[in-house]
Amino acid sequence: MPLSPTFGTENLSPYQVESRREIISLLKGLQNSNQLISMLINGGAEVFITSILEVDEQNDIVIIDSAPDNMANERIAHSDRVSFEGLLDKIGIQFAAGKITRISFENRPALQFNIPGSLIRLQRREYYRINTPLSTPIKVSIPADIDGRIVVLHLTLVDISCGGIAILDEKKVLDCTIGKTYEHCHLDLPSTGPINVTLQVRNSQELVLLNGKTNRRIGCQFINLSNSVLSGVQRYIMKLERERNSRLNGIR
């Protein structure tokens, strides 16, 4: 399954790998190095930590660890699309699976999907995205024209990179036309403080949650980000990475 950049904020096509031999090599690299990877469903609303147990080239399948509980595995198996993100030698790897099956592997619960037809290998540090904590959501303030008057919308930040952010617009009131630019936006990052940014819409995606409700995920690119603001964004990303690595190391 080709991986379109619907979950990100940048055009990642230059980093797309379609060579089957290279894809298998990268997946086996994640397996052999025992790298923990993130498994995302519902557009990133739920994230599970897993690892690759087996890359079966002959049968065209990848086998991964299951989620901790039965209900979570049911939600994963019923998801139309599951995304994966991990690091291999400090290079970001992203891929997706269209259908995941619950199986038993070496006498324990596991999940299985077809080897992806493409994946993204992020060779540049500034394109590395990281999810922001769901437990302490960060709000992005965006002045927008709603029915002829300027209203400041406070939308939830779901991921961030040095190139831009992704936000959730639950009420679907923000104009998400590709190329639409919003100036004087405020992003309040913990330990960095509020920063002013200009955002340009790059993509949007309608999400259908398991409870039947819908949400809209919007990817925005930073426009003319100053060096000082970029440094603040980088510091925050590094902080999130340190916190995530600490959690992952605790799982090992």
TrEMBL record:
<dbReference type="GO" id="GO:0071973">
    <property type="term" value="P:bacterial-type flagellum-dependent cell motility"/>
</dbReference>
<keyword id="KW-0969">Cilium</keyword>
<comment type="subunit">
    <text>Monomer. Interacts with the flagellar basal bodies.</text>
</comment>
<comment type="function">
    <text>Acts as a flagellar brake, regulating swimming and swarming in a bis-(3'-5') cyclic diguanylic acid (c-di-GMP)-dependent manner. Binds 1 c-di-GMP dimer per subunit. Increasing levels of c-di-GMP lead to decreased motility.</text>
</comment>
<protein>
    <recommendedName>
        <fullName>Flagellar brake protein YcgR</fullName>
    </recommendedName>
</protein>
<comment type="similarity">
    <text>Belongs to the YcgR family.</text>
</comment>
<keyword id="KW-0975">Bacterial flagellum</keyword>
<dbReference type="Pfam" id="PF07238">
    <property type="entry name" value="PilZ"/>
</dbReference>
<dbReference type="InterPro" id="IPR023787">
    <property type="entry name" value="T3SS_YcgR"/>
</dbReference>
<keyword id="KW-0966">Cell projection</keyword>
<dbReference type="GO" id="GO:0035438">
    <property type="term" value="F:cyclic-di-GMP binding"/>
</dbReference>
<dbReference type="GO" id="GO:0071945">
    <property type="term" value="P:regulation of bacterial-type flagellum-dependent cell motility by regulation of motor speed"/>
</dbReference>
<keyword id="KW-0282">Flagellum</keyword>
<keyword id="KW-0547">Nucleotide-binding</keyword>
<keyword id="KW-0973">c-di-GMP</keyword>
<feature type="domain" description="Type III secretion system flagellar brake protein YcgR PilZN">
    <location>
        <begin position="15"/>
        <end position="121"/>
    </location>
</feature>
<dbReference type="InterPro" id="IPR009875">
    <property type="entry name" value="PilZ_domain"/>
</dbReference>
<dbReference type="InterPro" id="IPR012349">
    <property type="entry name" value="Split_barrel_FMN-bd"/>
</dbReference>
<dbReference type="InterPro" id="IPR009926">
    <property type="entry name" value="T3SS_YcgR_PilZN"/>
</dbReference>
<dbReference type="Pfam" id="PF07317">
    <property type="entry name" value="PilZN"/>
</dbReference>
<feature type="domain" description="PilZ">
    <location>
        <begin position="123"/>
        <end position="238"/>
    </location>
</feature>
<dbReference type="GO" id="GO:0009425">
    <property type="term" value="C:bacterial-type flagellum basal body"/>
</dbReference>
